[in-house]
Design a protein that fits this description.
The chain is an alpha+beta fold. Helix content is 31%, strand content 30%. It has helices at residues 9-25, 62-74, 93-99, 139-147, 151-162, 208-222, 237-245; strands at residues 30-34, 37-41, 52-53, 81-84, 103-114, 129-134, 168-175, 178-188, 191-193, 195-199, 227-233, 249-258. Strands 1, 2, 3, 4, 5, 6, 7, 8, 9, 10, 11 and 12 form a twelve-stranded mixed sheet that branches. The longest helix is centred in the first third of the chain and has 17 residues, at 9-25. The protein is globular and about 60 Å long.
Length: 261
């Protein structure tokens, strides 16, 4: 069972700050506060934009709060889901949902690293790669990012991207003048995100993703951030290996609880 007791007090505070920044950094198309929880709806696709963030519960009747969540999603023709982190409230929420029949879905990790030097890989191809920062997504940036998505995520992603708060930077990696990789970072106090990482299939293994990471870290450091954070699927071994090699470590884990239809 996940619970705040699984991490130390300091780590829990840091993880909660990251999880709150992640909610703000990828805002859903519609949100509603339910006893402190944030119910998010975006017509399918993104997990973060279509689940309840349960970081700040202030209710006194858990059954009534859960029923309000179910009603919120039912009114929108959507499946009710919670994102379950290690710092959710109330403690024991994951077990409570499991006891009520909510099914566990995909596992994810939250990773973080202090801002510092990040060496660009020593590949000869890396010298042919250039980086451009944009205040808003360009058509080429969007094409690369959307190319890595499927189904409902691809359909709703442009609207989610349009709602990303400032300050932020959209990063493109170019080779021979063509955008081959994308990334996004949103500044939130001392934290900066790593989001929307994608590379064209024909441009894999050229070091483009690491170049994007380095550019994001440089930007984040210059804007006053102290730490980078990101979230990815637990079974995405290639991405996790890249992030570990770039200095990231696991700060927390989360999964989804879904009400069976």
């Amino acid at each position: 069972m996940f619970g705040a007791g699984q991490v130390g007090a300091t780590a829990a505070i840091e993880l909660a700050a990251i999880e709150r920044a992640a909610v703000r950094g990828w805002p859903a198309l519609e949100t509603r506060r339910i006893d402190g929880w944030v119910a998010r709806s975006s017509s399918g696709g993104s997990v973060r934009a279509n689940t309840v963030s349960a970081l700040d519960y202030v209710g006194t009747d858990l059954d009534a709060s859960i029923e309000a969540v179910v009603s919120f999603y039912r009114q929108r023709g959507a499946v009710a889901r919670f994102t379950i982190t290690e710092v959710d409230r109330p403690e024991g929420l994951d077990a409570a949902l499991a006891e009520r029949g909510w099914a566990r879905q995909g596992d994810h990790v939250t990773m973080a690293k202090p801002i510092g030097s990040l060496a660009i890989p020593g590949r000869s191809s890396a010298t042919t790669l250039t980086v451009v920062h944009h205040e808003a997504p360009t058509a080429d940036w969007m094409a690369v990012y959307l190319g890595g998505l499927t189904g409902g995520r691809r359909e709703v992603a442009p609207r989610l991207v349009a709602g990303v708060p400032k300050p932020c930077t959209f990063v493109s990696c170019l080779r021979d003048g063509r955008v081959i990789a994308s990334g996004l970072s949103v500044l939130d106090g001392g934290l900066a995100s790593v989001q929307c990482m994608a590379t064209l299939p024909t441009a894999r293994r050229l070091g483009a993703a690491r170049v994007i990471l380095a550019a994001i870290e440089d930007w984040a450091g210059a804007t006053g951030a102290l730490r980078l954070y990101l979230q990815t699927d637990s079974d995405n071994a290639a991405a996790i290996s890249l992030y570990v090699s770039a200095g990231f470590s696991v700060a927390g884990r989360y999964h989804v609880r879904e009400l069976p239809t």
